[in-house]
Amino acid sequence: MKQPVMIKGNKFGITLVLDEQQSFEDLIPLIGDKFKESSKFFDSSSQMALAFEGKKLDSNQQSQVLDIIAQNCDLNITYIMDQDPEVENKFKQTIEEKLKQTDVSIGKFYKGNLRSGQSIEVDSSIIMIGDVNPGAKVIAKGNIIVLGCLKGTAYAGASGNQNAFVVALNMAPMQIRIADVIARSPDKPSKDISKEAQIAFLEGENIYIEPINKSVLNDIHLF
Predict the structure, then answer these.
(1) Distances from the Cα of 153 to the Cαs of 174, 198, 211, in angstroms?
(2) Spatial distance between the Cα atoms of 88 and 49, rounded to a whole number of angstroms
(3) pLDDT tens-digit profile of 66-75?
(4) Are residues 79 and 12 in the same domain?
(5) CATH number, domain at 88?
(6) Which of 101, 135, 162 is the last residue of a domain?
(7) Does 114 lie in the same domain as 158?
């Protein structure tokens, strides 16, 4: 392994990958350092499951890992995914039920670029740190904010909310849809991508794209 301790994300929490050749005593301080370095990237308000890969740990060692994590960050770890299908299914059901009850005003974050053929769909608003490339798609029941270049497809207000909007630092989409209204890029799009942040919003039966300014923001309804 390149690193004795690695943290990977999964659908229901995080996976802690440990070098099986390292002693547990040597790994403990490294685990603490890794979680301390990564603490600012975690959402401490959400329940998480912790899974292990690599080195096999007994229940006592797993408890020590949980203690060292708690000392170095504010993660709310409620389950350990220990390859027990019954435990895993119970946690999945709990999380999925909470997602169904989530208010769409609560946004989610995604960091990374979406390539052609990739898509993200959320039951809330989403803030993306990265680019949405041609052929990629973002679908949200709430708003879509792209802190990068939007060149693919954005579908905001997927639940029918006409007050939803799409924001991008560089707005050059193939298609934007808000509720039931669709706007497509021209057959010969301009080569010059705007250097200022723009917002796409629905007014009547049309989608308008304008530079973000105070007057535009005053007319937008957040939800």
Answers:
(1) 6, 15, 19
(2) 9
(3) 999 989 888 7
(4) yes
(5) 3.30.750
(6) 101
(7) yes
pTM confidence score: 0.51
Q: How far apart (Å, rounded) are the C-alpha atoms in residues 113 and 194?
A: 19
Q: Which amino acid is at 160?
A: G
Same domain, 90 and 116: no
Q: Per the structure block, which two tokens stand in for 184?
A: 């497509």
- Choose among 201, 198, 172: nearest CA to 185: 172
Whole-number pLDDT of residue 214: 60
The parent domain of residue 161 ranges over: 108-219
- 115-152 pLDDT, tens digit per residue, is 998 899 988 899 888 899 999 999 999 999 998 899 99
The DSSP secondary-structure symbol of 39 reads: G
- Packed helices 59-72 and 24-38: angle between N→C axes, nearest 10 degrees: 30
